[in-house]
């Protein structure tokens, strides 16, 4: 009887914990080419592993979207508050981003940094904050537009020529990016790690 009750308790409690911890996770795939089969398989396997853990996964393959470059026109702050004035797919990216609990930026390293496609997409997230400035720990930062922002993580694919300094600079940039978007960068991973390691690290966020 005790063993039976313990088993039932474990099942109920285990499911309860899973539901509490389960996150809505957005994966932004910044690879500019669809030809890298190993990369695509790795990203797909990470998504499948997280789904098996109970997380809700949404993946946006950025090369398949129409995302225009930010022109710095400030329309997203003054003329069309909260969204880019251009009717491109950055509206979808912003909506999915702000409605997620965790966002994973996945990209190959190209010339010492993430892809231009990924950087372009990062720039188009600026409508998610206000133009107004406030002091945060002695630094000037934009005010929140929303009450809650997702935590972020970075998954990098090292290409030939990528060195430790490139990785360090990239992660410093993402840490500052997260700070500006009222969040924190809680995960730094490389595709040299196994899918299971990356999945487990995200599961612990």
What does this structure look like?
The protein is of the alpha/beta class and 205 residues long. The chain has one domain (23-203): Flavodoxin domain (Rossmann fold, 3-Layer(aba) Sandwich), CATH 3.40.50. 40% of the residues lie in helices and 22% in strands. It has helices spanning 2-21, 37-52, 75-78, 90-98, 116-123, 164-180, 195-203, and strands spanning 24-29, 56-61, 102-108, 129-136, 139-144, 151-157, 185-190. The strands form 2 sheets. It has a 5-stranded parallel beta sheet with strand order 2-1-3-6-7, sandwiched between helices. β6, α6 (164-180) and β7 (185-190) form a beta-alpha-beta unit. α2 (37-52) packs across α7 (195-203). The longest helix has 20 residues, at 2-21. Residues 1-20 have low confidence and may be disordered.
């Amino acid at each position: 009887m005790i063993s039976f009750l313990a088993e039932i308790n474990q099942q109920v409690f285990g499911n309860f914990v899973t539901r509490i911890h389960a996150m809505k996770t957005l994966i932004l795939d910044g690879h500019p080419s669809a030809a890298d089969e190993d990369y695509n398989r790795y990203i797909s396997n990470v998504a499948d592993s997280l789904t098996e853990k109970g997380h809700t996964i949404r993946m946006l393959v950025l090369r398949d979207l129409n995302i225009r470059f930010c022109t710095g026109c400030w329309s997203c702050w003054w003329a069309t508050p909260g969204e880019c004035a251009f009717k491109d797919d950055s509206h979808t990216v912003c909506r999915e981003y702000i409605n997620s609990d965790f966002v994973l930026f996945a990209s190959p390293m190209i010339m010492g940094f993430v892809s231009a496609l990924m950087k372009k997409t990062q720039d188009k997230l600026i409508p998610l904050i206000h133009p107004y400035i406030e002091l945060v720990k002695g630094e000037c930062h934009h005010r929140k537009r929303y009450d809650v922002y997702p935590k972020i993580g970075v998954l990098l694919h090292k290409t030939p020529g990528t060195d430790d300094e490139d990785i360090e600079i990239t992660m410093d940039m993402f840490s500052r990016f997260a700070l500006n978007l009222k969040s924190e960068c809680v995960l730094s991973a490389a595709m040299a790690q196994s899918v299971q390691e990356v999945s487990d690290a995200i599961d612990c966020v």
